[in-house]
């Protein structure tokens, strides 16, 4: 897919890349775009519009890891406008952002749109679903010197939206690969009565400590499930559009690093996010459409790995017509033991990239000063003003004691167990 996409983007003016969630679309469009960047050009050369903050930050991180020498910035709602305007004083070669925030910067002339040569609409159908058509229309009409358009999606639309101005687009379609999912098992679990909460709890106990995504249609359902799991002292994260951005980011970090094995979420987490392969997808509330169902299930059984999708049915609730497979019926035993605590916990350091702290600094702190072995240190993520590291749970008391009075980069900063 990446090879085909790179060849198409290199040769064709307008390209539509269709590929399943988790298949590597980000690198597929970033790599060929390097050929369109010039160190001699001052200004934004590539503009990438995304439907969510998390996807934008993910693309920014991937681009930085490529170490191209070109500046990249990400703009999104909830991020300080003043910080973004300061970043745009010396404009990046690659600018990533959500349509609403990028439209704000275009209106306020925070950067010169005349230098933008390439536009990428990543997961563009999701942006339309979130109601960004007006902002996207305004942005596209402001870009007078475009040489290339790249649209990506995990879903094929009947027509390309007219506001894009694209009439003849070259399609690279790898969605057929998504249909070949023999490793995905589909099961139903019947709840007693209309309330599914007790059934979900039993199912979570049955899945033990394997990674699970619990999908809901509404935020209040996410919060209700979270209250139950909190009362039962089961580590978990939540993720939905009503949460503050830092809280959303921390939930994803802890799910990625193994501190949480359960993430309770709306469809916001069904695509475009950098989260690990999950063993189980649990449809607590049945999906409203085939697309939602497909993208939820796409979070498991990826890259030829096994996975199971559970559909919890309330009394008199039937499967939607778009679910044509015949699921296996599973009966849950009662009084299952609670899942064991996760092996990892998240250690935080209140310093990040803006404080000149990087991963090497965190590794040195925890291995040399915290006396951890390499196998006792997990995933490290460094944000602007805070860093997170997964460490083995049993080592936490020793690390807290050893680092009580330690400094990083010569400064005393807050550090300890995150939540």
**Name of the CATH homologous superfamily of the largest domain:** P-loop containing nucleotide triphosphate hydrolases
The second-level CATH architecture of the largest domain is: 3-Layer(aba) Sandwich
Unreliably modeled segments: none
Please write the CATH class name of the largest domain. Answer: Alpha Beta
How far the N terminus sits from the C terminus, by CA atoms, comes to: 40 Å
- The count of domains is 3
Overall spatial form: globular
Rg over CA atoms: 23 Å
Q: What does the main sheet amount to?
A: 7 strands, parallel
Strand proportion: 15-25%
Task: Give an overview of the whole structure.
The protein has a seven-stranded parallel beta sheet with strand order 3-4-2-5-6-1-7, sandwiched between helices. The mean pLDDT is 90. The relative contact order is 0.11. 31% of the residues lie in helices and 20% in strands. Strand 16 and strand 17 form a beta hairpin. The protein is globular, with a radius of gyration of 23 Å. It starts with a helix and ends with a strand. The longest helix is centred in the N-terminal third of the chain and has 13 residues, at 53-65. The protein is an alpha/beta fold and 419 residues long. It folds into three domains: 2-177, P-loop containing nucleotide triphosphate hydrolases (Rossmann fold); 181-329, Rossmann fold; 344-417, RRM (RNA recognition motif) domain (Alpha-Beta Plaits, 2-Layer Sandwich).
């Amino acid at each position: 897919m990446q090879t085909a996409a790179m060849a198409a983007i290199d040769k064709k003016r307008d390209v539509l890349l269709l590929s399943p969630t988790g298949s590597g679309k980000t690198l597929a469009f970033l790599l060929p775009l390097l050929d369109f960047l010039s160190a001699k050009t001052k200004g934004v050369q590539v503009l990438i519009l995304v439907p969510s903050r998390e996807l934008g930050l993910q693309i920014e991180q991937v681009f930085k890891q490529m170490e191209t020498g070109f500046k990249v910035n990400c703009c999104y709602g909830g991020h300080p406008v003043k910080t973004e305007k300061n970043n745009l004083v010396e404009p990046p070669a690659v600018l990533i952002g959500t349509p609403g925030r990028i439209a704000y910067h275009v209106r306020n002339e925070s950067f010169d749109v005349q230098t933008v040569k390439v536009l990428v609409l990543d997961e563009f159908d999701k942006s339309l679903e979130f109601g960004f058509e007006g902002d996207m229309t305004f942005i596209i009409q402001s870009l007078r010197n475009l040489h290339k358009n790249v649209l990506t999606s995990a879903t094929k639309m009947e027509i390309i939206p007219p506001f894009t101005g694209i009439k003849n687009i070259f399609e690279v379609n790898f969605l057929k690969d998504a249909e070949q999912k023999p490793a995905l098992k589909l099961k139903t679990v019947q709840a007693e009565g209309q309330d599914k909460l007790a059934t979900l709890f039993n199912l979570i106990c049955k899945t033990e400590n394997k990674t699970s995504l619990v999908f809901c249609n509404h935020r209040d359902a996410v919060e209700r499930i979270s209250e139950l799991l909190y009362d039962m002292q089961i580590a978990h994260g939540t993720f939905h559009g009503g949460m503050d951005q830092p809280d959303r980011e921390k939930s994803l970090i802890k799910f990625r690093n193994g501190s949480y094995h359960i993430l309770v979420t709306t469809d916001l987490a069904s695509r475009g996010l950098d989260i690990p392969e999950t063993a189980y997808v649990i449809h607590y509330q049945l999906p409203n459409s085939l697309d939602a169902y497909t993208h939820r299930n796409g979070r498991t059984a990826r890259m030829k790995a096994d996975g199971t999708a559970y559909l919890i049915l309330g009394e008199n609730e039937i499967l939607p017509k778009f679910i044509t497979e015949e699921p296996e019926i599973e009966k849950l035993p009662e009084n299952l033991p609670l899942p064991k605590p996760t092996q990892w916990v998240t250690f935080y350091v209140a310093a990040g990239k803006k404080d000149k702290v990087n991963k090497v600094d965190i590794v040195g702190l925890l291995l040399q000063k915290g006396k951890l072995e390499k196998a006792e240190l997990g995933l490290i993520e460094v944000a602007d003003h805070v860093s997170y590291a997964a460490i083995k749970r049993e080592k936490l008391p020793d690390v807290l004691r050893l680092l009580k009075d330690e400094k990083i980069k010569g400064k005393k900063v807050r550090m300890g167990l995150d939540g």
